[in-house]
Amino acid sequence: MDAVAKGDSPLEMYRALVGIGVVCGLLIVSVFQGTKPIIEANKAAALERAIFQVLPAAKQSKTFAATDDGFKLLEGPATGPLVFGGYAEDGSLVGLAIPAAGMGYADTIRILYGYSFEAHAIVGMVVLESKETPGLGDKIASDPGFQANFEALDVSLSADGSAPVHAVAAVKHGTKSNPWQLDSITGATISSKAVAAMLRESTTTWIPKVEKHKADFMNPGGAK
Predict the structure, then answer these.
(1) Quick one: pLDDT band at residue 200, thresholds 50, 70, 90?
(2) Are the CB atoms for 111 and 98 separated by under 8 Å?
(3) How far, in Å, CA of 203 to CA of 157, rounded?
(4) Do the domain assignments include residue 139?
């Protein structure tokens, strides 16, 4: 018993480990709290850039919250799904930027796409978040051929306005023959199909609603 020093006792070792754990925990929380505003500001800046990428003719944007009765200009904390109106310098509506997300090959892919009321089409797409395979699946964000799909991707509605006439669909590279199809990336079929699937689901949900409530976006007040 005399050979065991007091500082080496199990109780003292336990206390030391608990102390180290508490200190490390406090440091982690402090770093998280300290960097959270920076992270949120960077995300907001990236989102703003993405809005103008998917709606190139827009010079200003406004944020809208979806409600049961349509859309309202966001004036406080977000409480529901958001869409973003893009406006020209004279205040006229250019289109909407709409978020969408879905499971890719590796993890959830988050995108933002631009919708033109005039063309009844998707006119731009930006990948906001992706962990797809480097050099393959991640090409959905940069491949010129794949990005060309979103210059005028047809999502026009049926006569009753209930759903797109044709569902967005990914096809084998080089076989695209219709304006509602995505020409997939060779070697990244799963990622290409994932983008098509999330756009198919999103446009089926959102395009009928934004078209029905287009007036909500026409004169919502000053730009944010």
Answers:
(1) very high
(2) no
(3) 10
(4) yes
pLDDT at 166: 98
> Apex CA 123: angle with CA 104 and CA 46, to 5°?
60
Does the residue 147 lie in any domain? yes
Number of structural domains found in the chain: 1
Name 128's Cβ contacts closer than 8 Å, sequence gap at least 6: 46, 47, 50, 99, 110, 111, 112
CA angle 43, 192, 95 (to 5 degrees): 55
- pLDDT value at position 139? 95
pLDDT at 133: 87
134 token code pair: 């480097």
- How confident is the model at residue 39, as a pLDDT? 55
Q: Which domain holds residue 98?
A: 37-218
Tens-digit pLDDT profile for residues 25-51: 777 877 766 665 555 566 667 789 999
- Of 97, 127, 118, 123, the residue nearest 195 (C-alpha): 127
Can you tell me the distance from the alpha carbon of 119 to that of 150, in angstroms, rounded to the nearest whole number? 12
Q: Are 14 and 22 in contact (CB under 8 A)?
A: no
